[in-house]
């Protein structure tokens, strides 16, 4: 008897993964492979799209031939803000340009001179002005910076929809992809922004689908229910929405720490946008207020610095236990000034206070690392408060890397003493969310209520953990 499963491709910047989930959403098969970047026509790093395309198609063919599984459905979650371009013959052309690619100043100036000031456009599109990270501006850049390539583009697909297209042949647009800081979507008018229509870029996009939609496809003589794909941050939220009814904030931690509040419908202010707040679109189309902090990246940079200074391994921090007495000492010590939560300046928070600290004042690695976490959580407090304001949230869930860090979790609990703080763990939240999004199309069993494990962290006194 074959086990009915759903296949999920989960494509990150470095690691590409395929999971098979059974009807109880347990992982029954998985494969992961790291990919090296290549360079684009300007010499900037970018995704190796031909390799990714081949890998996805050949790996699905491999698992379709496994005798123990009946693959009934297929979906995708990937990083966002990245377009794939198709020509008249539906072949991928150009490059999958990196969202960190430097943006030409003259193109940027031309855009805002034509369509209005940054603040107004950012408020209308719920997208901080982030240049290449606004995927709409990447397409605009190609139109004026690479006109020969632009003239060859017939369709423009965000990466999750490109992967779906490989198996359905259908050019689609998904709400979570256009709703993630793309500067394409007017959140007030609930349609493409006027600048998109004026530039005729909307002609390059397929029809809009919500992320709980599927297409019926036959691939290699195998019938499949194929999802339209999701932006990874939106996908990671779905297991929580399926499991918890009471209002909550999810802090999804990785390279970025993204605070997502699906229960805050207040429109973004200019100040919030300046502080790196934005809105995502929920997989069924509703706005989700979010704030971003580059905390995982900063943690990685600073632990390397600590390792070099104290002559330890780069991951020595994993052996450091939470020490409340050390926290108290750091807070009280005059030698470590500016380490109170109250001293944190307003965002944007691209780097921590710790970057500017002299490591020579710390007696041990443990002491320095506790200070790093104090600085990061101080900024996390400011960032998360931006989406908490005036909403009825009683719980904060933390998933990803920092959920496994006891120092971070204990400090966070003390930073939010009026809110229950939980470390949440589940097997592959992003992939699971992509599977749950199309649950009712392939799975007749009820949604499981035990996909998320929670560990409660109690506050040990405001700011003095």
UniProtKB/TrEMBL annotation:
Residues 245-313, 380-437 form the Carbohydrate kinase FGGY C-terminal domain. It comes from Larkinella knui. GO terms for cellular component: cytosol. Transmembrane segments: none annotated. GO terms for molecular function: D-xylulokinase activity. Pfam families: FGGY_C (PF02782), FGGY_C_2 (PF21546), FGGY_N (PF00370). Coiled coil: none annotated. Belongs to the FGGY kinase family. This is Carbohydrate kinase. One of its GO terms (biological process) is xylulose metabolic process.
């Amino acid at each position: 008897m074959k086990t009915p499963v759903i296949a999920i491709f989960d494509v990150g910047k470095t690691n590409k993964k395929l999971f098979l989930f059974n009807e109880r959403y347990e992982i029954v098969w998985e494969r992961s492979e790291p990919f090296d970047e290549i360079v684009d026509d300007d010499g900037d790093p970018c995704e190796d799209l031909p390799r990714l395309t081949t890998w996805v198609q050949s790996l699905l063919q491999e698992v379709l031939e496994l005798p123990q599984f009946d693959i009934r459905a297929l979906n995708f979650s990937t990083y966002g803000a990245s377009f794939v371009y198709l020509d008249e013959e539906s072949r991928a052309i150009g490059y999958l340009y990196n969202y960190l690619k430097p943006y030409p100043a003259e193109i940027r100036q031309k855009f805002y001179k034509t369509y209005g000031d940054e603040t107004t456009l950012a408020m209308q599109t719920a997208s901080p002005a982030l240049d290449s990270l606004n995927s709409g501006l990447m397409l605009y850049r190609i139109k004026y910076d690479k006109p020969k390539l632009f003239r060859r583009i017939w369709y423009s697909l965000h990466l999750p929809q490109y992967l779906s297209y490989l198996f359905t042949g259908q050019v689609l647009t998904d709400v979570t992809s256009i709703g993630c800081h793309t500067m394409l979507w007017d959140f007030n008018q609930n349609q493409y922004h006027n600048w998109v229509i004026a530039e005729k870029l909307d002609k390059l996009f397929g029809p809009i689908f919500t992320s709980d939609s599927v297409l019926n496809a036959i691939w290699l003589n195998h019938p499949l229910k194929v999802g339209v794909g999701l932006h990874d941050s939106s996908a990671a939220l779905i297991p929580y929405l399926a499991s918890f009814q009471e209002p909550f904030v999810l802090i999804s931690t990785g390279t970025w720490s993204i605070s997502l509040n699906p229960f805050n419908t207040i429109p973004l202010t200019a100040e919030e946008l300046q502080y790196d707040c934005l809105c995502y679109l929920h997989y069924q189309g509703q706005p989700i207020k979010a704030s971003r902090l580059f905390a995982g990246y900063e943690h990685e940079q600073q632990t390397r610095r600590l390792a070099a200074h104290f002559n330890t391994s780069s991951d020595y921090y994993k052996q450091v236990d939470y020490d409340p007495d050390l926290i108290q000492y750091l807070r009280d010590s005059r030698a470590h000034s500016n380490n109170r939560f109250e001293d944190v300046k307003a965002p944007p928070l691209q780097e921590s206070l710790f970057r500017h600290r002299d490591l020579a004042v710390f007696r041990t690695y443990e002491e320095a690392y506790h200070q790093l976490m104090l600085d990061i959580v101080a900024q996390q407090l400011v960032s998360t408060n931006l989406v908490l304001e005036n909403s009825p949230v009683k719980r904060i869930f933390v998933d990803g890397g920092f959920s496994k860090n006891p120092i971070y979790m204990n400090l966070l609990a003390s930073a939010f003493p009026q809110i229950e703080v939980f470390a949440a763990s589940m097997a592959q939240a992003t992939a699971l969310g992509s599977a749950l999004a199309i649950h009712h199309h392939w799975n007749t069993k009820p949604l499981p209520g035990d996909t998320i494990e929670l560990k409660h962290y109690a506050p040990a006194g405001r700011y003095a953990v």
